[in-house]
Amino acid sequence: MPKPSPAFDRADLPRLRDLLEVKTGLYISDEKLPRLKEPLEQLRAIDGAAPESIIAVIEGGGDDGERYLQRLVAAVATNETYFFRTTAHFTALKDYLLPELIERKKALGAQTLTIWSAGCSTGEEPYSIAILLLDHFPEILSWRINILATDVDLDALEVAREGIYRPWSFRGVAPELIRKYWRPLDGDSRRVDERVRGLITFREHNLNIDPYPSVDGVSGIDVIFCRNVTIYFRPPTIARLLARFHACLVEGGFLITGAAEYSREAYGEFEARVLPETVVYEKAPARRPAASPLPLPLILPQALPRPASRPAAPRIAKSRPDATRVEDDAVARAIDLIARDEIDAALVLLATAAEKSATDARIPFLLGRLAADRQHLPEAAYWLGRALALDPLNLWAHYFMALLWIEEGRLADALTALKKTTYIDPNFVLGHFYLGTIHKAEGRADQARKSFAVVKNLLAGPGASEDLSGADGISGRQLLVLVERELAS
Ligand SMILES: C[S@@+](CC[C@H](N)C(=O)[O-])C[C@H]1O[C@@H](n2cnc3c(N)ncnc32)[C@H](O)[C@@H]1O
Predict the structure, then answer these.
(1) Domain total for the chain?
(2) Are residues 66 and 204 in the same domain?
C-alpha cells in the first residue's frame, strides 16, 4: 500500500501564498491563509501529492503546475460576475467613450475597434460589451471589431466559450434585450446568440506573467475593462499592471476599473475622466492642444457659486459630523489641488464628493469647468447642466455652458444661455460681449451694436479697466478697445 503523503502544516501556507502572488498577483492576507488548505487537501487526496512536491510542481510550471495553480486561484479569487454589471460603465461606454473613439477613428480613416475584457471570468462582461455594440452602434459593425476576453481561470473560460447562462447572470437585464440576444434552452438556461459570440475571442491569459496584447503602432487596444480583478492584488502588482495596460492602449484609449479600484495614486500615468456616476481613466494624447481655445479661467474660491439652498440640518446632525462641512472641505481641497495643477487628484476627489452630495451645485460646476478645460465637451455639458439643475441662477454655469455651445457651433443655445447671464446680472460685461459677438456672426448688426454699446457703457465706469473675472486675463481696458473698434466699424 502506498504511504500517504504528509499532511500540510501551517508553515507550508505562507510559502504557497508567496508562490501564488509571484505567479498570479493574487495576494491573501494572514487571516485568509486557511482558504488555501482545502484545495491543497484535495490535491493531496487526488494526486497523493505532498506539500513539497506541490510547491515544486507549481514552481516548475508545465501542465501539472498550471492545474495545481488553477485550484488555488479558484479557491482564492471569486468568479462572481453578471451581465451589464455596474450600469454606469456601460452608459459611459455608450454615451461618451465609444462616440468619442468612433469619431476619432473616422477622422483617421481607421476602421478597427479593439476592446479587452481582462479578467473576464465566465464571460458576462465581454458578452455585454458585444451586445452594446450590436444594439447601439450598427454603423461600425462592418469594421474590424475584436473583443478580446481573457482570464487565468480555465474553468471560467470554458463556461464563457460555451455561452450558456442561468437566470442569476441576467439580474437587471431588460426582458426585451434577453429575448433579442439569448436563445432559450431546456429548463431556465439561455445561450448567447451567434452574432454576439462572433465578436469575441476568448483566450487564457495571466495578467501577472503573460505578455500583454502588443501594439503594432496602428491598432492597439482602444478600451480595457479590468474590473474587480485587482482587488486581491497588492499596490506594487497593481502599479505594474497599470503601466502595462497604459503601454498597450492607443493614445486616447480608456481603462475601466471596478468602483472600489479607482484612486488617483494608483493610476499615475492615466488621466481621470469623471462621467455620470463613474470615473474612467484615459491614456491622454501625448500632445494636447497647448491652451484651451475657450477662455476658461479658474474661478477663484470667493467667486464660486454657493449651493442655492441647503435643506435644514436635521436635529441629529448635532451629534454627527456636519455633512455641509464635509462638502465644503472637498470643494476647498479640490480648489487647492487645482491651484497646484493636480487636476486628476481634484477630479477624483470631486467625483467622490458628487456621489456623496447630490445637492451642492459647486461640485458639478467644478467638474464641468475642468472637463471643458480638457476639451471634453459632452461631459462638461453634462456637469454644467447638473449644476444648473441644482442652481438655475448660477451665472457662471450659464456662462461656461454658453462658451461650450459656441465651441460646438450651437449658437442659438449659446444665445439663450448668454441672455440668462444678463438677466441674472444686467452688469455682466462678458455676457453682453458674447451676445454681441453672436448677433454679429449671425448678421444681426443692429443687435450686435446694441450689445457692444452696453459693454462700452459698463466698461466706461470706474475700475472697469481692472481685471475682468472670467475673461481669461483679458482686462476691461482691452475689451473696451475691442468693442470701440466694433462700434466704429
Ligand atoms: C470577480 S471576477 C471579475 C469578472 C468581471 N471582470 C466583472 O467585473 O464582472 C475576477 C476574475 O479575475 C480573474 N483573475 C484573477 N487573477 C488573475 C490574473 N492574474 N490574470 C487574469 N485573470 C485573473 C479571476 O480568475 C476571476 O475570473
Answers:
(1) 3
(2) no
Averaged in consecutive runs of 10 residues, what is the pLDDT profile of the chain (489 residues)? 58 86 91 84 77 82 84 86 96 97 94 96 98 97 95 94 96 94 94 96 94 68 96 91 93 90 73 93 73 38 38 33 60 91 92 89 94 92 96 93 92 96 93 94 94 92 62 75 88
Is 424 within 8 Å of 404 (Cβ atoms)? Answer: no
Q: Give yes or no for residue 50 CB within 6 A of ligand 1.
A: no
> With a 6 A CB cut-off, is 80 part of the ligand 1 pocket?
yes
Q: Which domain holds residue 465?
A: 392-489
Examine residue 378 and state whether it is found in any structural domain, yes or no: no
Q: Which of 152, 157, 241 is the best mutation target for the ligand 1 pocket, counting ligand atoms within 8 Å of the beta carbon and taking the most?
A: 152
CATH number at residue 452: 1.25.40.10
189/103 same-domain check: yes
- CA nearest 243: which of 273, 291, 276, 208? 208
Contact between residue 274 and residue 351 where contact means Cβ atoms under 8 Å apart: yes
Residue nearest to atom 19 of ligand 1 (CA): 24
Q: Is the CB of 152 under 6 A from ligand 1?
A: yes
| 60 and 91 together in one domain | no
Does the model's pTM come out above 0.90? no
